[in-house]
Design brief:
Elements: E1 52-56, E2 59-62, E3 73-76, E4 88-93, E5 96-112, E6 114-123, E7 133-142, E8 160-168, E9 178-185, E10 200-202, E11 209-210, E12 215-223, E13 232-238, E14 241-249, E15 259-271, E16 275-285
């Protein structure tokens, strides 16, 4: 099954909604530093932990993912592009408008109330996406898998939600690949001036810029709301440090809609060159994971 399902190209429309919901400062109850991964040096055996939903370090290719087709997605054994073990996933985005590489999707129906996802990413030394791109890990809730990639509309509380941890150039004011933020579709999202509903931005109080040519440990969390309240949350970490924590989110209006998918992607709206990045050591869990221990 290809990642490029109905409506996917529209998900990467112009990032025009710059609504900046006020983040709360990191709560003490959210863990930093060592987490679940500290018990499993090198992540060896981490997939057997009862809290873990899914784990993959690409040592057996990409066969454990549900979507993995395309010539621009491959497994590399270049030691400079592997975080641990012998292999990592390489995504390649060619020049042009609406250019992208097929991503990696894992579904875990019927889903969970709270999910953490941790992965490692490296951007190529010459990576330069211009302005608008999606190079992200995403946690999603979809009552129909075909909704993955549908964009420009506001979720109604029963159908879907999604949030991605990605980087932004801020109209080239940031060096590539940019600053970290969360790109979110949810029922209370704000409308774009063009009349559509593009993902809203959740930015931390302090800007965090990523550099090219080095590995980062990124982690994100979504905790769902009670269906009759706006008490959901999302958060993200960089190299084990809690950077952004956002509360008061209404993800859904029915308790049957849960976090049931994780998606790694690369897409550039108007790509000026060939861009590459590498993903490795993915873990999805019901509890905080933290960086890998040597």
């Amino acid at each position: 099954m290809s990642l490029f399902v109905r409506g996917l190209p529209a998900v990467f429309a112009l990032l025009a909604v710059l609504i900046l919901p006020r983040p709360l400062r990191a709560g003490a109850f959210l863990t930093e530093g060592d987490g679940l991964a500290a018990k499993y040096p090198g992540d060896a055996g981490i997939g057997r932990d009862p809290a873990v939903i899914f784990a993959d370090s690409f040592e057996s290719g990409n066969a454990t993912w549900d979507n993995r087709e395309g010539k621009r997605l491959r497994v590399t054994e270049d030691k400079k592009r592997v975080h641990s073990g012998k292999y990592a996933a390489e995504l390649i985005c060619p020049p042009g408008k609406g250019a992208g590489a097929p991503g990696l999707v894992k579904w875990f129906d019927p889903g969970y109330e709270q999910v953490y996802a941790r992965w490692y990413v490296m951007f190529a030394e010459d990576y330069d996406q211009g302005d608008l791109h999606h190079a992200a890990g995403n946690l999603v809730g979809m009552n129909d898998h075909w909704l993955l990639g549908v964009s420009g509309r506001k979720p109604d509380g029963t159908d879907m939600f999604s949030t991605g941890l990605e980087t932004w150039r801020d109209w080239k004011r940031n060096p590539p690949p940019g600053e970290m933020f969360m790109y979110t579709y949810y029922p209370d999202m704000k409308r774009d001036p063009d009349g559509n509903y593009w993902g809203n931005m959740f930015r931390p109080e302090k800007k965090v810029l990523l550099e090219r040519g080095r590995w980062y440990c990124l982690e994100m969390m979504v905790e769902l709301n009670h269906p009759d309240r706006a008490d959901g949350e999302q958060a993200f970490w960089v190299d084990g440090k809690l950077i952004g924590h956002f509360t008061g989110i209404r993800w859904r209006t029915v308790d049957t809609l849960k976090v049931n998918g994780f998606w790694l992607e690369l897409y550039v709206h108007d790509n000026p060159q060939v861009n590459r990045l590498w993903y490795d050591d993915v873990v999805v869990s019901k509890s905080y994971i933290g960086p890998m221990k040597p």
